[in-house]
Amino acid sequence: MRRVRYDSPGGPLFLEEAPAPEPGPGELLVRCEAVGVTLPVVRKVTEAAEPIPLGGEIAGEVVAVGDGVTLFGAGDRVTGLCFGHGYADFALLREAMASRVPEHASAVDAVALVRGGLVALGALAAARPEPGESALVTAAASGAGHLAVQLARVRGASRVVGAVSDPAKAAFVRSLGADEVIGYAYESWGRPVDYVLDAVGGDLLTPAVGAVAPGGRLVAYSSGGGTVQAYDLLVGAKSVIGFQMARIARDKPQLYERWRRELWQLFADGAVRTAVHGEFALEDAAKAHEAIESRANTGKVVLIP
Predict the structure, then answer these.
(1) What is the pTM of this model?
(2) Domains of the chain listed by start with CATH number
């Protein structure tokens, strides 16, 4: 089979031939039809001390299962987060991370919806939104952000603001239902909001906290780090909440599964739609990474083996 890897931190991605993996206990072997490219993996290619397997969301057909697998069998269509080599013709998926792809959905729909949507739903749950509150979503045109904009409205937000790196993305974010769109470099982010869902971090944390109304909340779910000044929280009685999807998947599997079912239902009902920035061949994985690194993407970036 073909797979993508690299040899040194920041090194070029290249395609190689490798034997198809064998599923171990609790694992599914999936013939990949679509692979979602994630910002954390893109960052690790340049930041990790040693090369890592290029994982991410995968979707496709189960071709074999390991010992102890009871919920899936050969021929099932599944999606889930692969922690090993996912940029490949075949990849391993833990049964606990897998969910069925409905007949009405494609593999591309699956990788664009499920993982990003779970993160967006989880961040929203951490914000504890009340109907009628206002929301601001950073990285509003990203794979998770474009779903968070829509889900904030589903959760009852009366006003949704999208924050983007490039004002050229404004029309796209408005098409998702955002009432307002701002650029990161804007001097003012407008009227404060009740909660912020921040997927960027870093230097953007300061203006993001500034955009929170007194008594409001900021949910940080970025891998970008950053520092918040305690005084900025104190004077406005604001809260910052950290959210990590891995903790939910590991410690609250029933909640994780409930959110997955909810996402597919919202998708089937037309309440949430996916957007795909581009579909790249495996040999063009470097171009897919570049689309995310340059913040050029509007929606999900997908590899098609």
Answers:
(1) 0.91
(2) 2-101+275-304 (3.90.180.10), 119-245 (3.40.50.720)
